[in-house]
What we know:
Elements: E1 3-9, H1 14-31, E2 36-40, H2 52-60, E3 65-67, H3 78-84, E4 103-108, E5 111-119, H4 131-142, E6 149-154, H5 158-168, E7 174-178, E8 188-189, E9 195-197, E10 204-205, H6 214-223, E11 237-247, E12 253-263
Parallel strand pairs: 1-2, 2-3, 5-6, 6-7, 7-9
Antiparallel strand pairs: 1-11, 4-5, 8-9, 10-11, 11-12
Bound molecules: fe (ii) ion (2 copies).
One fe (ii) ion (FE2) binds next to loops.
Amino acid sequence: MNTLRILMIGDVCGAAGRAIFQKHIDKIKRAHNINAIIVNGENCAHGRGITTKNVRFFEHNGVDVITSGNHIWKHKEIYPYLDEHSNLLRPANYPAATPGVGVTTFMVEGHRIGVVNLQGRVFMKELIDCPFYKADAIINQLKEKTNMIFVDFHAEATSEKMALSFFLDGRVSAVVGTHTHVQTADERILPGGTAHITDLGMTGSFNSMLGMKKEPIIHNFLTALPVRFTPDNATPIVMSGAWIEVDTETGKALKIQRVMIIDNDLIVGSEDD
Ligand SMILES: [Fe+2]
Ligand SMILES: [Fe+2]
């Protein structure tokens, strides 16, 4: 049986997230015999959005596909890139008129792998299509090209994430959650052979609030006054995700393992790096 291991990393936040990614990605790759890397990059530019410079950073560090979510629209300079390239995805269930696509394929050691990015609707304000019907339509088409399909479901509610995983069970290799930035301990293989984790967790400052400085956020809870969110680059820094081992013929997941590295000694550059 031929197998591949695909590493999926949760929302990379600002300079801290980029620094830990750069420092540890090759070590993780070697330690776990990783064949391909998918990373959620929606927060890597100063905590919100992504720039073409950030895309080059991920390409330089061996990333195959960058997924995203609700923050993808923050920096308009990325819009043309989204239209012209398929290694950076936006959620597939945004209106057709928005830049970019939410599905792509890439080759690893002679095998084609599909990646789908979707966004949830529960407790999220964006006016987007139903992720379930959209996933159904995309996967029907994608199945003609490959059995190995990895879904990043960028959603808030655990219920919606579990429901999509069970809905797609047996048809895709993995459904992983992103967006909450809090890693869940529920990684498992569902009865039909789809790997699931409700959230990969985030890659950024460990003692932050989802990658942002916590003090203004606590102040907001205490006063209900508007606050400005700023990225937190203080150490320790955490890198979170999971890898999935998949049978290249059937596309079924054989194993899912969480990854979490905490680095106390990282030197973080400026946000503009
Ligand atoms: Fe995020
Ligand atoms: Fe998000």
